[in-house]
Specification:
Elements: H1 5-16, H2 24-32, E1 53-54, E2 60-61, H3 64-74, E3 81-85, H4 91-99, E4 102-107, H5 110-122, E5 128-132, E6 145-150, H6 159-164, E7 165-176, E8 181-189, E9 192-201
């Protein structure tokens, strides 16, 4: 049961559908995955606001509208193998698990990785695989992936992720400076990426060998 079913429905209808999210499967997934279960207890009253919320270790749970834009851009039909970079709270992971055949998710911060895995296991998700490590390197042993989604800002699309994307696969990532990015959608064709720019956005940085360096 939702923490507040009325507020959850308001979020889906007002913040998502009325603003142009038209993929019915995406909207239904938002109804099934209660965002309140993925935010810290002291922020539960803000769980259905359309804004990013602070997690531990300087990380955030993304704005619902931005998450919905990313999911809609992935064009998931339910048969895909998806790589997620940045497990975070596990909110996007759960949405992906509702929409795709299987999800492979990588998180560099151990506390977030283990907390998200415990939470998602308790919620009954059995089509998710977890890894603690440098997300900018992807998960090469299990490539290729039909879809790749990056939940952190990249200075450029990491070459490792480009190489792990299946032919005709889609990759969605915020790309730009540490202060502001564009949400890019990329399709792999003939071994190369064709990119399309989307809206401006602000994500925490992807830290790693093929991302930004440093912890702050």
């Amino acid at each position: 049961m939702a923490y507040d079913a009325d507020e959850l429905e308001r979020m889906v209808e007002g913040d998502l559908r009325d603003r142009g999210i038209s993929d019915r499967r995406v909207l239904d997934a938002f109804r099934k995955v209660d965002r309140a279960a993925f935010v810290p207890e002291y922020l539960r009253e803000q769980a259905y606001t359309d804004r990013a919320l602070q997690l531990s270790h300087g990380q955030t749970i993304s704005q619902p509208y931005m998450v919905a834009l990313m999911l809609q851009a992935l064009k998931l039909c339910g048969t895909e193998k998806v790589l997620e970079i940045g497990t975070g709270s596990g909110y996007l992971t759960a949405l992906l698990a509702e929409l795709a055949r299987e999800v492979w998710t990588v998180e560099r911060i151990e506390f977030l990785a283990t907390t998200a895995e415990d939470r998602l296991t308790d919620l009954g998700y059995a089509n998710i695989r977890y890894r603690l490590g440098d997300g900018s390197l992807g998960w090469p042993e299990e490539a290729p992936y039909d879809r790749i989604v990056v939940s952190a800002a990249c200075p450029r699309i990491p070459k490792a992720l480009e190489e792990q994307l299946a032919e005709s696969g889609l990759l969605v990532a915020p790309v730009g400076s540490a202060q502001e990015q564009e949400l890019l959608t990329a399709t792999r064709r003939g071994g190369k990426l064709e990119t399309r720019a989307g809206p401006s956005c602000i994500f925490v940085r992807l830290i790693g060998q093929n991302g930004f360096s440093g912890e702050t």
